[in-house]
Design goal:
Oligomer: single chain
Strand content: 15-25%
Shape: globular
Low-confidence stretches: 1-22
Helix content: 40-55%
Mean pLDDT: 92
Distance between the termini: 87 Å
Largest sheet: 14 strands, mixed
Number of helices: 19
Number of strands: 23
């Protein structure tokens, strides 16, 4: 037996030729299995073909749903606008016709976020159908408002469509549990409608309250459950082909987006937060309209909500209480959502690197690999992982900087992201291939593959102990791959076919996971996932890499063939071609170029300065120009009360406007808006007030140091109000255009 080294006396090729179970045919079979399961995982994330008007009354029809919501999504509906009033009137009539009792709640919602706070005047619509023998309350929720200049057919018109068609399909009969349709105002400006409802109104709902919240960050894609609270793991199986990953819930706190579900969960409600994320380039833009919303996505969303509604409306909700404290790690498998106790996930995460290490020791005894070689393999793969992630992120950053006109202004996504997604994955292959060739100059194939798996499983072990939810989706297939690696290593050489079967079976979960997760990341968008695509692919492949080794002894020598450095050249050229092709394809899209435009107007002198992102000739021509505006400014009165108390009275001039109050050094404290306190114990540096109507006055009381400078900006969303305005052509889409009129005063 050779000694434990990466440099045995026997030539590598001679050893490899005697290794049954490590033949090129077996390697090709494993590759085909991986590709087939990867493709199956990606294909599993399709949507449902839309049903037409002729569909049976009891099923969800995307065509009927689109027709029901069509009058609402014809125009933008910013909070405080006549358009949102018209939308709520239409929705109230629709729900009243379905046998619901309608109630309108007008009030002021307040939300504090560190040193910033938002308040907003809105009108929530609550439609109720009492249950026959209620054990709790089921709430179907979404919001009626959209951002300015966006019709919001997806955000959140898709939720309105789904809810209207769901209650129609349920029929006029009362369900066992109370059913509430909650349509909120002011979500886009800080979840203000939800805050107002939870502050006043939610106490009337019979507990436990279960909410299905509907959201959108794009116009297409597979609807997914992004977050859950309470014992919803006991319910999720009632949905057709459900998709839920615990890690999306864990990741949500790191993302810049938020939904009303945060308010519901903080208020003690159970439920699920659902969303679509595909084609997020249209998010918060004029292209978020009925023509762009994918009907298959609407159908799938509706099927999901209808199935969950039928279950929850008839279920004994109180009986779920004993399972409220359960918090299994959940991930999606071919047969449904898998639920695993967090302790088991953490245990598997810790066992996986031990299994790989055991496989290293087995092969060390056979002279195929040394501990030093495996350590070098782990270090080499760390370089691959870091290089690919940084390369993917850097590749997109350079592409976006070179062609900013192809990016959306909300998410920085291109209209057509597919080729850029492929470019990142191919770029990762370039890094992996180059470093593989260099590593093979120092270590054996077994050392490189086992070292890669050892590194990945160690990283996942740390993640599994820190947060089983965050790592669950990758830990389970990695643990199976690690177990398969060890079993294939200990089987005798004569069991070549058995070992091959073990490796095939152990590879299946990795292939499925990679297909589903890469598809989901690609749907999320290249700007949001740059680097994550490469990292996910390499982590999955790295954990399963030793499955490519046979059970019999393999070559232990390094392979010093520097000419193999030519291998990455082809994928490098392909990467460049994909970037160039993706850019050309996107620029050829018929969709307009998105621009942000703001007119900064001095409320006293009328002096106006235009600021435009400048992605088009129109934008570059208008950016930086100056003019004079004959705009009425909001009235501003400041009165000092006792001590450090100050009263600020502002009267708005325009509908659907917003006020931003920014104090000088020292900030505000003890803030109240029209008598509603704002949690400002740490002090506020910015206070925004949304949903103001023309002529509406608001009274703000604060504590502030004498002599502080206060800046008040009234924002209207019509740039044509300002002097110097030049309308763009049809090829430009304005993203929430703003006219900001500013005033200053001493406190």
């Amino acid at each position: 037996m050779p000694t434990s080294t990466d440099h045995p006396a026997e030539p590598a090729d001679a050893v490899a030729s005697t290794a049954p179970g490590a033949t090129p045919a077996h390697a090709l079979l494993l590759l085909l299995v991986l590709l087939a399961t990867l493709g199956a995982g990606a294909a599993s994330r399709g949507t449902t073909p839309p049903a037409g008007e002729e569909a049976p009354s009891s099923v969800f029809s995307a065509e009927r749903a689109a027709e029901a919501v069509a009058p609402v999504v014809e125009e933008p509906r910013p909070v405080g606008s006549p358009a949102v009033d018209r939308a709520q009137e239409e929705l109230a009539a629709e729900l009243a016709a379905r046998g619901f009792e309608i109630e309108a709640q007008e009030g002021l919602g307040v939300r504090e976020m560190g040193t910033e706070a938002s308040a907003g005047y809105g009108r929530n619509l609550i439609a109720t159908r009492a249950g026959t023998a209620p054990t709790g309350t089921l709430v179907l929720a979404t919001h009626t408002d959209s951002v300015p200049n966006a019709p919001g057919a997806a955000d959140a018109g898709v939720g309105l469509a789904v809810i209207l068609e769901t209650v129609r399909a349920l029929g006029p009969e009362a369900q066992r549990n109370d059913l509430v349709v909650l349509l909120l105002d002011g979500e886009e400006r800080g979840l203000l409608g939800a805050e107002a409802f939870l502050a006043e109104g939610a106490e009337e709902l019979a507990a436990p309250v279960v909410v299905l919240n509907h959201e959108a960050r794009g116009i297409s894609g597979r609807p997914m459950i992004t977050r859950a609270s309470g014992p919803m793991h006991a319910v999720i199986g009632s949905a057709p082909h459900p998709e839920f990953e615990s890690f999306t819930d864990a990741l949500f706190s790191l993302l810049p987006n938020d939904t009303d579900f945060t308010v519901y969960r903080d208020g003690g409600w159970w439920g699920m937060d659902m969303a679509i994320i595909g084609d997020s380039w249209a998010y918060h833009s004029a292209e978020d309209d009925a023509d762009h919303l994918d009907p298959g996505t609407l159908q799938h969303y509706g099927d999901l909500t209808l199935a969950l509604t039928r279950d929850l409306a008839q279920r004994d909700l109180a009986a779920l209480t004993p399972r409220e404290e359960e918090s299994p790690v959940q991930t999606t498998a071919p047969w449904g959502v898998v639920q695993v106790p967090p302790g088991l996930v953490a245990a598997l995460a810790l066992l996986a690197p031990l299994a790989v290490l055991a496989a290293v020791l087995v092969r060390r005894r056979r002279g195929e690999v040394s501990l030093r070689g495996a350590a070098l393999g782990a270090a080499a793969f760390l370089l691959v992982l870091v290089g690919a992630v940084l390369g993917g992120a850097g590749l997109w950053a350079l592409t976006a900087a070179a062609t900013p006109e192809m990016l959306s202004q909300a998410t920085h996504e291109p209209v057509r992201a597919e080729l850029f997604v492929l470019a990142e994955l191919v770029a990762a292959a370039v890094v992996a291939a180059a470093l593989w060739v260099l590593a093979r100059c120092l270590i054996s194939r077994a050392a490189a593959l086992l070292g890669a798996s050892l590194l990945v499983t160690l990283l996942l072990a740390v993640l599994g102990v820190y947060s089983p939810d965050l790592g669950g989706a990758m830990i389970l297939p990695a643990a199976i791959a690690a177990g398969g690696t060890l079993l294939a290593s200990v089987l005798p050489p004569r069991a070549g076919l058995v070992a091959l079967g073990v490796r095939v079976l152990a590879l299946l979960p990795t292939g499925w996971m990679l297909g589903a997760q890469l598809h989901a990341l690609a749907e999320f968008g290249i700007a949001s996932s740059a680097g994550a695509l490469a990292g996910t692919a390499l982590l999955g492949l790295g954990a399963a890499a030793p499955l490519l080794l046979g059970a019999a002894p393999a070559a232990a020598e390094p392979s010093r063939r520097l000419r193999r450095l030519l291998i990455p050249v082809l994928p490098a050229v392909l990467t460049l071609g994909l970037v160039v092709g993706g850019t050309t394809w996107t620029l050829a899209s018929p969709e307009p170029v998105q621009e942000r435009v703001t007119a900064h107007v001095d409320g006293v002198s009328g002096e106006t300065r235009w600021e435009v992102t400048g992605s088009t000739d129109w934008g570059r021509a208008l950016d930086g120009t100056r003019a004079t505006s004959a705009l009425p400014a909001p009235s501003l009165e400041v009165e000092r009360l006792e001590g450090s108390r100050v009263q600020i009275a502002v009267t708005a001039v325009r509908d659907a406007s917003a006020l931003t109050l920014t104090p000088g050094a020292g900030g505000f404290s003890a803030v109240a808006v029209d008598g509603v306190p704002v949690d400002s114990a740490a002090g506020l540096e910015t206070l925004q007030i949304h949903g103001l109507r023309a002529g509406q006055s608001v009274l703000i009381t604060v504590e502030a140091d004498p002599g502080q400078q206060l800046t008040v900006v009234e924002t209207a969303y019509d740039p044509s109000l300002a002097g110097g305005w030049v309308a763009p052509g049809e090829g430009v889409s304005l993203m929430q255009p703003r006219t900001e009129v500013s005033l200053t005063a001493a406190l």
